[in-house]
Design a protein that fits this description.
The structure holds 2 protein chains of 2 kinds. By secondary structure, chain A is mostly helical. Helix content of chain A is about 70%, strand content about 5%. Chain A has one domain: MetI-like fold. The longest helix of chain A has about 40 residues. The chains are: A mainly alpha, B mainly alpha.
Chain lengths: ~325, ~270
């Protein structure tokens, strides 16, 4: 672009006019998108923040200032405490498994096996589906009285899947029992089924970017296949792992549709998440200010991951 | 070498086992949807139907058909409009950079990661005021607006790879801002348009939160109708599974036919620059 500008500067008189009219056109191209984002993203976030500090907890809007009342209420609320616990454990479970499966499958497919593209397509296709479809299908597959349990019963195992209310390794903490709710494992299986393809695609792209010569050179030096992965390839995949963690974390923190269609809040809120709570309390219960407060907490939790990632990513180029 | 001879069969074993896990829901969906009602007992879930019965598709289709049409009325204009806006802003942010344009781009990008719950309450107030609440045009508008960050990102990254020299020489030949866009950028970004269109088509078709909060009853897109179908206890499993397949078919077909572009869109959404 610098070069272009110098060029136009030389022809001063003749190009001055067209240069500035081009700039007006550029502004006209960008302005609609920019204004829409400013209003509908930043303006509306500000408005939600304002609602979260108000007394609007009925059908009739009431914008009188309530201070942090709605936030204080939420953090002492059994359901919201359960949501925070569930989000915490679900996010760890989900990210861990998506990375484990994605990376292992990518390494297996990296051996240039026959039928590689068939396998790839099988692992990718769930990503083209809606979380709602995934929820509906897995709700049936993991129904405790049918589905997968028909197999497992023959081995004497009968998991209660998403209807299970036990909290694994739980201890009393605030109002809730803190630990991994067993029912979340069922939701996790469905989510991992759907999203493994994403991390697999990322790792495949990452592995392809590593030149064959790098491996050849290591082999010449007498490194075993295991050592090559351990010491050369995995370190090079680090930035990809960071991207996968961030993208999966933000999906997990705002998850709504999968849980809403598969299990709902669950008994004792064992599968409830802030996204479901926000939806139900705002649009079914008319607690707008509470809903807005949940939304702001969700936003902050996503921003904590996303903002440093975006800034870091943008700094990398320029 | 001994290890290699051993790892290949082991790799195939693992890959096939995982493939079976991935295909299992599809198998159950298909066989269940083809069973007559009296074979839908819980203990027969895995067995093949004794005869093919397409009646559940008839029932699912008659329940979902109006919502399927809603989804098409929503997805097609929303995809085209958001691709157009993305192409326009991506062009400026890649080839007409100015001071602060990178910051502005980052600010726009953030919009793609926010939980939409955090804009939903004002959005619904706005749509009510504008008379767009509970309407397909309202939903189109919403998807166009919140599609801007991802489409801008995709087009910007696509246009960055078009060499500046081409634009310079076009300018020397007298092309202005619009001329460069029409005669260089658009013709060179056809595959970029395909990637963006497939991505937006799939996402908007599959989207649920906006759909369930902004529309009711006969304005609802198919995913909300599917969720309602599975929520009602009277509807049989064969109809639900047929419904899920019918609702998933458009995006599945797009994936089967144009999967390469779909995966490119997927990678474009996370790898910036």
């Amino acid at each position: 672009m610098e070069a272009v500008r110098k060029e136009t500067a030389k022809g001063e008189k003749t190009s001055k006019k067209s240069y500035s009219s081009d700039q007006w056109m550029a502004l006209a191209f960008l302005l609609p998108s920019f204004l829409l984002i400013v209003i509908f993203v930043y303006g509306f976030i500000g408005w939600t923040g304002y609602v979260s500090l108000s007394n609007w907890n009925s059908l009739i809007p009431d914008f009188s200032f309530a201070g942090l009342k709605n936030y204080v209420y939420l953090f002492s609320d059994f359901r919201f405490q359960a949501d925070l616990r569930n989000t915490f454990f679900f996010t760890i479970l989900f990210i861990g498994l998506v990375i484990l499966f994605g990376l292992s499958l990518a390494i297996l497919l990296d051996q240039k096996l026959k039928g590689e593209s068939i396998f790839r397509n099988i692992f990718f296709f769930p990503m083209a589906l809606s979380f709602v479809v995934t929820g509906v299908v897995w709700q049936w597959l993991l129904n405790p009285s049918t589905g997968i349990n028909l197999f497992l019963n023959t081995f004497g195992i009968t998991p209660k899947w998403y209807t299970d209310t036990t909290i694994l390794a739980g201890f009393q903490w605030g109002q809730i029992e803190f630990g991994l709710p067993a029912a979340l494992i069922a939701v996790g299986i469905a989510a991992v089924w759907q999203m493994t393809g994403f991390s697999l695609a990322m790792y495949i792209a990452g592995l392809r970017a590593i030149p064959d010569e790098t491996r050849e050179a290591a082999r010449m030096d007498g490194a075993s296949e295991f050592q090559i992965y351990r010491q050369i390839i995995l370190p090079q995949l680090r930035p990809i792992t960071v991207s996968v963690i961030i993208i999966m974390a933000h999906i997990s923190l705002k998850i709504f549709d999968l849980i809403y269609s598969m299990t709902g809040p669950g008994a004792n809120f064992v599968t409830d998440v802030p996204g479901v709570y926000m939806f139900e309390t705002t649009f079914r219960g008319n607690y707008y200010a509470n809903g807005a407060a949940i939304a702001m907490i969700m936003l902050i939790s996503v921003a904590v991951f996303m903002v440093p990632y975006l800034l870091n990513n943008r700094k990398g180029e320029a | 070498m001994v290890i290699r001879a051993f790892t290949k069969p082991a790799s195939y074993f693992v890959l096939i086992a995982v493939s079976l896990f991935f295909l299992m829901p599809v198998y159950v969906m298909i066989i269940t949807s083809l069973k007559p009602l009296d074979e839908i007992t819980l203990d027969q879930m895995w067995t093949l139907p004794s005869s093919l019965d397409f009646s559940s598709y008839g029932e699912a289709f008659s329940k979902l058909a109006p919502n399927l049409m809603n989804s098409f009325y929503l997805v097609i204009p929303a995809t085209l409009l958001s691709a157009l806006l993305g192409a326009m802003s991506g062009y400026v942010l890649s080839k007409w950079r100015f001071r602060g344009s990178e910051i502005l781009f980052t600010l726009m990008l953030f919009g793609m990661f926010i939980p939409y719950q955090s804009i939903l309450i004002p959005l619904i107030q706005f749509l009510r005021e504008a008379g767009l609440y509970n309407s397909i045009p309202g939903l189109i508008f919403v998807h166009v607006v919140y599609g801007i960050p991802i489409t801008t990102l995709m087009f910007r990254n696509f246009y960055v790879n078009i060499p500046d020299e081409m634009i310079e020489s076009a300018k020397i030949d007298g092309a202005n801002f619009l001329g460069v866009f029409r005669h260089i950028m658009i013709p060179l970004s056809v595959s970029g348009f395909v990637v963006v269109a497939i991505w937006q088509f799939t996402n908007i078709w599959n989207e649920f939160l906006f759909a369930v909060t902004i529309t009711t009853a006969d304005q609802q897109p198919v995913m909300v109708a599917l969720q309602n179908l599975s929520g009602s206890q009277i509807v049989q499993w064969n109809v639900q599974m047929a419904g899920a397949l019918v609702a998933a078919l458009p995006t599945l077909l797009v994936y089967i036919l144009l999967g390469k572009y779909f995966v490119r869109g997927l990678l474009a959404g996370s790898v910036k620059g």
